[in-house]
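Let us begin with a simple case.
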Amino acid sequence: MPSPMFPDHDQWLAPHHLLQMWHGFEVTLQLTAIAVVLSTLLGLVLAAARSSGNAGFRLTAAAYTSLFRNTPLLVQLLFWYFGVPALFPEGWMEWFTASDHPLALTDAFTLPWPSFEFLAAMVGVVLYSTAYVSEEIRAGIRGVPHGQTQAAAALGLTHAQVLRHIVLPQAVRIALPTLLGQYMNILKNTSLTMAIGVAELSYTARQVEAESFRTFQAFAVATLLYVAAIAVIESIGLWRLHTRLMPGGTGRR
């Protein structure tokens, strides 16, 4: 008699259901990778604006951070998916949802045009995550010794050059452990995009559960995939910390 904790082989998910979930996991990884890259780049700009001597830049960046940090991601996703298209001129939605204009990276390599659900999810997750990433980078900026900024200014560097060449590179290294924590949050936050129809891992797990009536198995597989992805990000952080603590590592220079 099979154990309740270890069902017999007939109770495992069918191969096509596992493949379906793997495709959902690929969408999760794609959305996470795009959000990590874009939120980091935008976060650098936002953190620089928060540290700028221009009051207008500081106030604008502070308002952005406050707006996106103090509203739920789910509400923002629904806004980008349902609210913003209502403001589009006639014909825009047809263009966004059409698949006859692939992204041509080279003459021989093109990518299919993403669905509007994916585009709305990407915008929502990126803009939301940027507010958090920028604060981690700003904390890293405060960790850079002020004497370095003064020395660079004494050498004739402008404020923008000091940020670009001296402050921001060090700030990113200082903030890397907490940034990796934000990247883990981005991976987990992608699960909310199922609310607007993105066929990511949580969405496909729900579909498989509805088709197979194997709730435990479907969500167990989804959980294991999430844990594996988080473990990879955490391993990168531990490796980076180990290299910084080693004699001669970048953290000792």
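The second case is a distinct protein. As before, the sequence precedes its structure tokens.
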Amino acid sequence: MAEETGLCVLCPNDRETYSASEETYIPRTASMPYSMLPLWEFVGRLMGVAIRTQTPIPLSFPSIIWKPLVRALLPLGHLCV
């Protein structure tokens, strides 16, 4: 589910070669057509099935994306640019 699907783009920190978020992707928000919404719904369902069946999915999101999803604390250092 990387850039090939059009859903995610390479994390800006990775483009700038910061080591904290190398090889991670963020959801694409700019100029995404409404027609992509069913694909995001599918990704959400796929994640739900993976959680219920305890089958890990190798998603590569930076901590600023995944920590709020799992209700983990997000240190202020993760918010600095």
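The chain has one domain: 3-78. The CA atoms of residues 49 and 55 lie 8 Å apart.
Keep these points in mind for the review questions at the end of the chapter.
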